[in-house]
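User: I'm new to structure prediction. If I give you an amino acid sequence, what do you actually give back? Let's try with this one:
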Amino acid sequence: MYFNWSTYQFEEVEARKPPSSREKLFELLSKGEPNAEDVQALIDKDASAVKEKKDGLLPLHTAVLNNASVEVLHVLLKADPSATNEMGTFKDGVMLPLHFVLCERRSLDIVQALLDVYPKGVEARITGEGKLPLSLSLDYGASDDVVLAVLAAYPNAAEDCGTNDDISLLPLLTAIRKKRSLDIVKELLKVYPKGAETRLPEGELPLSLAITTRGISDDVVLAVLEAYPDAVKDTVSNDSSTLPLHLAILKKRSHDVINALIDVYPEGAAVRMKRQREEKLPLSYALTSGVSDDVMLAILSAYPDAAKEKSDIISSHEMVKALLDAYPGAVKEITPTKQLPLYYAIKMKASEEIIMLLANAYPQAAKKRMEDGRLPIEACAVNKASEDLMLALLKLDMPVSIEVGTTVEHCGSWNACVDCNTEVATGAVRRILSETEGGYGKHIHALADACDDVGRSALALASSGPRAAIYEYPLFSGQYRLQTGAPEHRTATSVVLRAQDLGKQSDYGVIFDNWVRDNNGKIDRQDVATNANSIGLDPDLFLVSSEEDDSISKEDFVGICKRQLGDGPREVAIKLMQNKDQWERECNARTEYNLNPKYVVSALSNVPSDTEIAHAVERGDDGLDTIVTKFLGGSKPGIYAIVMIAADRNLHEIFHQEQPEIDAVRVMLRQVFEAVKHLHEKNLMHGDLKMPNIVRFRIDNQLRLIDFDASARIVPMGREEESIAGAKFSSAILPPEMIERIETEEQLEEFNKYWEGEHDKDLVAKFAPKLYHGQDGIMKARYAVKSFHTGKDGKPVDKRLPYELVRASASIDAWALGVLVFTLLTGETLIPSSRDDDCASGAAMHILYSWGTQPEVLSELFKKIDDNAARDLVQQLLQRDPAKRPTITSLLNKHPFFHPERDDEEMKGFVQQMNARLEDIDNTLHSQAKQLEIMNANNLVIKKLSDESRSELFHTRHELLKSIFEATGVKTPTTFIILNYKLPPKASDEKVKKILDLVAAEDGSDVSVDLPDDLQEYRDQVEAGIKWSKRIKSINSKVAAGEVGTAFEIIKEGIKDLISGNEMYLYLIDELTGEPIRADGWPITITGPLEIVPKLFPLMQVGMRAMFFCDGKVGLARMFGFPAKRVPIAWLEGAQESVELLNEECSVEQLWHRACTSRGRYRDSSLRTFVDFLNKNDPGLSKNEHGDFAGLHHIGDPEDGTALWTTLTDPVDIENALKERAKQRREKEKLEHNEHNIQKTVKEQRKLNEHNIQKKVKENTDSSAAAKHDDPDAATDNNCCTKLMMLFGY
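Assistant: Good question. You get back a string of structure tokens that encode the predicted 3D arrangement of the chain. For your 1290 residues, that looks like this:
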């Protein structure tokens, strides 16, 4: 009931009927994306709903029409399969569902669902058009997979053209016209190959259609051609002269298509095509159509005579060359425009490559005037030709012969070129004169006098640029006037000459114009600063302005450049270098790192080529020979050059001539430190920071760095890339880590062999080890710099070197700066040095090598610096440990020396820190002084030792260290043992006596002596040492046979059974007494021994070898806790062979040596592991306190550093111990000497016996022969006797 407002009465409303299942189904299918479950639910309620139509459509039709999902279609198809063959009224007409989905380009799964239910649908034609589904799918753009599915369902459709002749085509033709994919075309051809022969209504075959259809891929064309090759001979029906080849050229088909067409029908390349009233060959059309060179070359190759067809078309250089190769005479024939090809090419501004090609093919053309009366070189100059082209044309028409300089016939190109006042013409003149490119400079006078056709000489005609080039040629490298007198600077590897640069200067106005972005005549200052490095100027010059203007005018820009770089001739420094590697390093440092000219003197760019300068050096240009003879002792300088603006003074001259006070020194040092900071920010180490390599320019009073031939890349930590310092050096400014101590003849021999290929006497003297003599005049050691030479690849050659090379780092420069600061503040060199800043002697190198080992000496040295801040700065820079040297940035930012004017809280804090450091140093020195008193007491003892004991000390320590690389840097004991049990307390005197009694009871026979129970533990200790020595033998044999990379794995496997349990015990050994140390906190317990013990094994073997060397088998036994000085022979049974192995240099040395040849892969690995282990586990070191090393301390020779670790402190005890050790070693050596003599005697006796036997045999043989006739039985007896003698060895 509702209220009717028109009648103002309540009225009854007729109830509406609920929608039927059919209506609900259609409504659901008409909505977007119906759910398959909902559709199935409606069908389940009323199965007939699926078969009822609405507006001529079944539910299936409606679902297809509304793009329902494939799941919905499956539900409908299952409910009513017959719907697939029911026609429906769709928007495009009456058709089957399959037709509709193909027209709508529906997905493959929908199409396949319909085909699965009604396969015959693929054969049903659409009403009106008469097309099969295959044609529909091609026409309406169905996806490739749909087309292929329809074709696979009904292959015969590939032959069907439809029933409507007006609109139907063969599917193949439809596919080509519709630009369908290669897969579809191939499948159609596979199903119906004859399709490739079927013509279009217009008469074209599929091949021609494919070629002319834009968007069809070349692969489709090739597939159609392969299906019907004869199509290549078919002309288009309405033009009997046009072949597919012609069409392919006009349509700019690829090289592959053209080649395929020519391969099938090569004669086609000779068939002319009529087009626009002209008949031309395919090559001519190719030249005009813009196809690729490959296409044209293929056509020319098929028909070379096509090159004879005249054409005015200028193609590429490669094509012109091919045409000339096919028909060389073409270069001399007149073109359709009535001129030679060269002149036409110049007129049309063809590429310079083509012009050069034509000129070289017909040189006479370069010597004739063109139709407009100009010479080819004049026309090219007007066209702004390059120097290369001008030079090439000049070479073809020079007025004199290159061989002897006599006048030859010419047309005046030389005179025309010198008359042209352009940079290009000037450059061409300069290059034709140069020895490397033209070689005419030697005939400069004849060229200057050469006249044109009206009698004017070249010199008279020459404009300013070419005239200057003519005048410059007699100069050094045609550009520089060398300064007479001594060289500016000279080293063993280089010489620096000052000169005046008379060459062409940069046109700063042109540079400005090239940088301008818009037309306002100004450049943003930031843009100028960005590009300033490229012209060798400090970017800051362009960023500072008195006005608030962010841009700079051309006038201001040119003014700054001229003020900074000079206007006209300028003073330059020419550095000539002997060593190519050093030159390349310097060049690379300047080019690769984008160094700022504010900090670095830039190399000039507008300089002669490297080859030109090299030839100038060899010729001795501009008085160079005089300089060589007068100042260089006749030695030619190097040919590798770097040219820079000449500086005013270097720092060495400033320091000695101007004698700056500390404030001036501070300003200079800040500039130097900022320059070095700039390098380090670029990850570049200078490597040779000394006063001559720091220069000042008068124009801005700024110090800058030069000489980068020792530079190297600083490789950030963690990278595998290797960059090494020391290729070039000044040894007096090197840090301690760069100095090597050569102690043995083997090391010296290895060093000399490495450098034996160097023949330069100055370099040999520089690299040669320097001898260091002690106070007694005895030679203690040799010192050398850890340098190297490079291979052809530019990388260090470190094989056979007796030392480890040092990686390039900022800390090396930091040390050099410390040396520099010290010299500037004290007026003294840090160590005695030569004029080239090399160490003056071996003693000077010893100072560097042992730097920091005598703190009181350094303290006195640094006290020469009065200023506290300056002294602290030097002390920080000159620290022995590279890791402790501060960065240059941190010093510039925080160090009080560079900020004397600051009084803020932050700087006060830095000053407090500095004062604390200085106080700590004083306190440390005081503490060390006390320790030194104790050490000096021992040292005094050592000084008083007899020669015998002193020699013994040296021999012992030598054996301990000879197998450890960088041994002199070791600051911890290195002799130890590892056991899987703790040693018992030290034996009592009573037990020691029992053992000695046991030894005395042995009479040399095999009779064994009963062992008391209380001595069994000591026999176990001897057996432990024997067991380790046997294992050494086994492991060493495996290491010697294996790869270095597997050495530690071999060790680990070899001692696996000796490592029992989860704990083992490490004992340090007293290197003088040979006994293990029992002290508080010792032994150190090793947990997880399987991982660390194999790594410590090589170093432990060194100690075992040293103890055996000194005391023989007793020394080895004492290491493992045996208390007596003699060992019962029976206890050593079976140990002889393996223990004697320790007396040979074939154990750990072999491992280290083989590892060395593998670039130090395991070098020092065992030693580093041991030191790290002590730092972590020593009771003292682990608490960041001074380690007591179980009570061991150094005793040693203060002169050469020879020292041992021992617990003995009493001088008498030390002297006695050394004497006892010397006695034991002499006995051992005597025994070994006796054994050697016995072996030698046996060998000589055996040799004598063999000689006597041979002599006796000969005598018996002779006598047997003589007696044979007289007494046959006697002869037989003699023979038997001889055999018996031989049998028993007589």
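You can read the tokens as a compact description of the fold. Here is one thing that stands out. The CA atoms of residues 1092 and 1169 lie 8 Å apart.
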